Amino acid sequence: VHPNVSQGCQGGCATCSDYNGCLSCKPRLFFVLERIGMKQIGVCLSSCPSGYYGTRYPDINKCAKCKADCDTCFTRNFCTKCKSGFYLYSGKCLEKCPDGLEANNHTMECTSIVHCETSEWSPWSPCMKKGKTCGFKRGNEVRVREIIQHPSARGNPCPATTESRKCIVQRKRCQKEGKGKKNREEKRKKSNKDESKETRQESKGRAARRQNREQRENNNKTQPKKRKAPNKEPDLAPVDTAH
């Protein structure tokens, strides 16, 4: 062992030196060189830092740098995330997306162009004018449709979702809702009034009959009962038997 190499290292190092840091790592750890000023120091990490990818070998596990435009990568030729100003497409970082694709500034990827999609038209509405379906000859009818898929930035925009056209209906009078309602209300009040009047009259009649009955009972109590005269047999004249 070289005099400058130590076996009693810390931080996951298997061997190290005072000048160069870690020279080899313990099993399953990755060896990577970190630059400090003009000097590179070896360190041992459980996973490779951003901008590096790990490769395992029988004798050592190493972290190697990704391409300059990659922020993270799986291998040197396959990026998983690009640095600012580049868009990811099939493992590569591009400044401009290929034809047929568009740049997604949210994910920083090249994605397929999405066009707008709408549902079928609904049936035409009843012919109306100023919110009414009567009292006119010419009006308008409307139909609508819904947006099923909103477009992406470069996709075809959505068409109109509402259509209107002129229509003709047979002229008819509108029922005056206010007048009809007023008449119904008046009829209801009159009916309630008549019922109340009949109820009051019936109550007065019952009260009068009850009062008369009580009066008769009081009179019977205060007046003495009349005794009936005994039945007398009529006096019979004497019968003349001289003849």
TrEMBL record:
InterPro entries linked to this entry: Furin_repeat, Growth_fac_rcpt_cys_sf, R-spondin, Rspo_Fu-CRD_dom, TSP1_rpt, TSP1_rpt_sf, TSP1_spondin_dom
Entries under SMART domains matching the protein: FU, TSP1
Keywords, alphabetical: Disulfide bond, Glycoprotein, Heparin-binding, Repeat, Secreted, Sensory transduction, Signal, Wnt signaling pathway
Biased composition (Basic and acidic residues): 175-219
Region (Disordered): 174-243
Main subcellular location of this protein, as a coarse class: secreted
GO CC annotation terms, alphabetical: extracellular region
Chain ranges of the R-spondin Fu-CRD domain: 11-110
GO terms of biological process kind: positive regulation of non-canonical Wnt signaling pathway; Wnt signaling pathway
Positions of the Spondin-like TSP1 domain: 116-170
Pfam family, one: Furin-like_2
Keyword Glycoprotein set for record: yes
Compartments where found: Secreted
Family classification: Belongs to the R-spondin family.
PANTHER family noted in UniProt: NEUROHYPOPHYSIAL HORMONES, N-TERMINAL DOMAIN CONTAINING PROTEIN, R-SPONDIN-3
Subunit details: Interacts with the extracellular domain of FZD8 and LRP6. It however does not form a ternary complex with FZD8 and LRP6. Interacts with WNT1. Binds heparin. Interacts with LGR4, LGR5 and LGR6.
Protein name as annotated: R-spondin-3
Originating species: Zosterops hypoxanthus
